[in-house]
Amino acid sequence: MKIIYYYYMKMITKMQVIQKGGGLQYLLSDDILENDMFRNRQSMEEKNLKIQIVEDDRVLSEGIAMALKEPELEFIQSFSVKQAKTAFQKEKIDLVVLDVNLPDGTGYDYLEWLRGLSEVPVLMLTANDMEMDEVMSLNRGADDFMAKPFSLAVLRARIQNLLRRKVKQVRQEYREDDFVFDFDRLVFSKGTEKLALSSNEQKLLRLFLENKGLLLTREQLIDRLWSDGGEYVDENALSVTVNRLRAKLENKNREISYIHTIYGQGYMWKKESKR
After folding, report:
1. Fewer CB atoms near the end CB (10 Å): N or C, the chain?
2. Tens digit of pLDDT for each residue in 90-108?
3. What is the dihedral of CA 209, 211, 214, 219, to 10 degrees?
4. What is the rounded distance in angstroms from the CA atom of residue 269 to the CA atom of residue 216?
5. Which residue ranges make up each domain of the chain?
6. Is the Cβ–Cβ distance between 274 and 256 less than 8 Å?
7. What's the rounded Cα separation, in Å, for the pair 86 and 78?
């Protein structure tokens, strides 16, 4: 095996893994790999996420880890089903990139074992671009599937999407100061006081919490709150919803404000003293 790397301004622009002797070629990417996989990392609540790469081809495994390298990511490389199981039991894995063909079994074996323990996101890789492989992967609990050869840019985007989805699933309960917002049980409280929030107020609150410190424009909020295909929504409806939520969260005696109006643009969730 040989691996060819082209570097330009410290960015990977192309990587090929070629098996000698006329065998299978893994042309991974012809794309410029910008260092922006987590450009929206403000919304990623977790840090130091661990990705397990289960791939018996060590050169390919190293290439994937190098191409996906980010400060927030740590890679656990396993080269067999046995190694993968041992590593998963020792480490807190956040996502698994899993090859189907392994020396002591198949990726499906490991996937079935995983699903007996965890709902960790799994992206399957296979050298066979066959519909049946994709069906088997998804039916056995994989979250996504890619056939070799594949674009690293697409792989990065799919991993970003799976990690973002995982963070949102994990963070169903938010706590800040004396607030507790439980979106699973739809229970919201401020200290000992229960808060009765309408459906749109719940949606709005969640949008704010998932985008703390970020400007949400009026257009974005209207689109997310009233995405039922209606032709027209009065912008005043958004103002009313924001004011009602703000009134329930912030009373006159509270010294802290959370929902801020950015005039002419939109709103932002930011903890700030009123003084």
Report:
1. C
2. 888 889 999 999 999 999 9
3. -100
4. 9
5. 38-170, 173-273
6. yes
7. 9
Distance CA 114, CA 23 (A): 32
Class of the CATH-defined domain 173-273? mainly alpha
CA 215 vs. chain centroid, Å, equals: 20
143 close to 169: Cβ distance less than 8 angstroms: no
pLDDT tens for 130-158 read 778 888 888 888 989 898 888 888 888 88
Q: Measure the N-to-C terminal CA separation of the chain; round to a whole number of Å.
A: 66
Q: Nearest CA to 89 among 118, 129, 54?
A: 118
Report the range out of 29-38, 76-85, 145-154, 162-171 with the highest average pLDDT: 76-85
Beta-bridge partners for 67: none
- What would the CATH number be for the domain defined by 38-170? 3.40.50.2300
The one-letter code for the residue type at 161 is N
